[in-house]
Write a structure and sequence with these properties.
four-stranded mixed β-sheet, Arc Repressor Mutant, subunit A, alpha/beta, 336 residues, single chain, 14 helices
């Protein structure tokens, strides 16, 4: 069990990650690929992922670098999931490549002591080779494009629904109600958050005024995961109460209702609340003027809300928009 000890200051600084975390999803999906549990939909996702990796010639890099670096075991290096991922996908990948050499060496030594480092590629990383870090960045980016990008519409809907529910608990009852509303594997017993932890051994983390960032995960496994190094910003990533599926029906229905581009823009807003019109245009692959027009229609339909800040228009999904994305008219859920 993991015990996370809060002070009053920590409660005030506890926050919910505002966007999908690319690198946590990358690591979690690698764990999914290495398992054989789950239902038929998860098995279908593995087959599709394997096919895309094969078509793009990525299987050798996956086997030589990514799978050994993120084994389905008690440890993977903390540097794989930098907090900068909360700023967006590009900052996430850049932060990964720019990891200080000493941190890479330290994390890789922990991986070695846990039985890892079977490949020459990882030995280069363990020596702090900058060329190896750049290659890792390219492999991660290629893997994410091949395996994660096709799942983003469904993942965005699921994660947007989770954030909406958790945020509602925060607005109605503050940080303590938010912590108490999380999955059954997480229990709030003031001033301690008790977490069923995959490593098995008892562990206690004192936040000491740093707060905690909660990161819901689409590909996460049964148990929440925290970083090992206590000097890093405290985070807790937890699986949302929904299995990975190959459900394309909801996505097709949303596109039929709104149109493909408008559905993509709604998903972009849900994935990155507070995003600007320029960011919407880039993520949806359209011009800024086109993104602005679609955002106006979504705003008129009460699916998003927009506020102007300086020369930027920032967008958020409304309760109705979130309900449409999640396929449920109700945002409340019962926690066991």
């Amino acid at each position: 069990m993991l015990r996370i000890v809060f002070t009053a200051e920590d409660l005030a600084l506890t926050r919910l990650a505002p966007r999908t975390d690319l690198l946590w999803e990358m690591v979690s999906s690698l764990h999914r690929l290495q398992s054989r549990d789950g239902d038929q939909a998860l098995a279908a996702w593995r087959r599709q992922a394997h096919l895309r990796l094969t078509e793009r010639g990525l299987l050798p890099s996956l086997r030589a670098m990514l799978l050994p670096l993120a084994p389905r075991g008690p440890y993977f290096p903390d540097f794989l999931t930098p907090i900068q991922a909360q700023l967006g996908d590009e900052p996430a990948l850049q932060a990964l490549v720019d990891t200080p050499r000493e941190r890479v060496r330290r994390d890789m030594e922990v991986l070695r002591n846990s039985g890892g480092l079977p490949s020459a590629d990882l030995e280069d990383l363990a020596r702090g080779n900058q060329g190896a870090m750049r290659r890792l960045g390219r492999v991660v980016a290629d893997y994410c494009r091949a395996v994660l990008t096709p799942c983003w519409p469904e993942a965005d809907r699921a994660l947007a629904g989770e954030r909406a529910i958790v945020q509602r608990h925060f607005l109605t009852g503050g940080a303590e109600q938010m912590l108490a509303s999380l999955t059954p594997t997480i229990r709030w017993r003031p001033p301690v958050l008790e977490v069923d932890y995959p490593a098995g051994a008892g562990r206690e983390v004192h936040l000491r005024g740093r707060g905690l960032t909660l990161i819901p995960s689409y590909f996460g496994r049964a148990n929440p995961v925290a970083l090992v190094d206590p000097a890093l910003p405290p985070v807790l990533t937890y699986p949302i109460p929904r299995r990975v599926t190959a459900d394309a029906v909801a996505s097709s229905a949303l596109e039929a209702l709104l149109g493909r581009t408008r559905a993509a823009i709604l998903n972009c807003v849900a994935r990155a609340p507070g995003c600007s019109t320029s960011e919407l245009a880039r993520d949806a692959g359209v011009s800024v003027s086109t993104a602005s027009e679609h955002a106006q229609v979504l705003r008129q339909a009460n699916l998003i809300a927009s506020i102007r800040q300086a020369n930027l228009m920032l967008h958020h999904t409304t309760e109705l928009g979130t309900a449409l994305l999640t396929g449920s008219p109700h945002l409340e859920r019962t926690r066991n």
